[in-house]
Amino acid sequence: MYRKYFKRLIDFLLSLIGIIIICPILIILAILIKLNSKGPILFKQKRLGEGGEAFFIYKFRTMVVNAENIGDGLKVKSESDSRITKVGKVLRKLSLDELPQLFNVIVGNMSLVGPRPPVTYHPYDGYENYPGWAKKRFEVKPGITGYAQVKVRNNASWDERIKYDNKYVNNVTLVNDLKILIETILVVFKSKDIYKS
């Protein structure tokens, strides 16, 4: 009942209220990003969502322009990565770079809680190349945060994270979503496993 009828409504209302409340913070962060480095304020990237459908995710830009094609590509091993801007280090540490995804939730291609959406070409090249067991994670909308995020964050292989995602898909409830949201706040303040070790 919750997954089918109420999750989307709660996502929309909480995201709308959240955007209204933190609007001044969003404006300040946008100004800081613009003053700190050349390039756009937002980082746009194509990701895989529910049913394997591609969509654009939005984040505050924390790295230099074209960072994916410089150095280690998608891998960011530590905050000392030269591609990360000064403001970007702070945004990443506090996960503030994820805030624009509230607009993704409003639009309807993301949820507050769900599996994190992967890029279209990694860890598998396209939805059709995911093994059957791994496609289960795409049965729900991807989330700003998720079960794998609070349990292992980035300190695990993609296949390990997908197993946590599948556990979430098997038990989507209001209670679980609230627990994950609370745990996310705790994980962010601990700044744990931001970078893959």
Automatic annotation (TrEMBL):
InterPro entries, A to Z: Bact_transf
Pfam families recorded: Bac_transf (PF02397)
GO MF terms held by the record: transferase activity
Record field: transmembrane: 12-33
Keyword Transmembrane: yes
Boundaries of every Bacterial sugar transferase domain copy: 7-190
Keywords from the named record: Membrane, Transferase, Transmembrane, Transmembrane helix
Coiled-coil region list: none
UniProt keyword Nucleotide-binding, yes or no: no
Family: Belongs to the bacterial sugar transferase family.
UniProt protein name: Sugar transferase
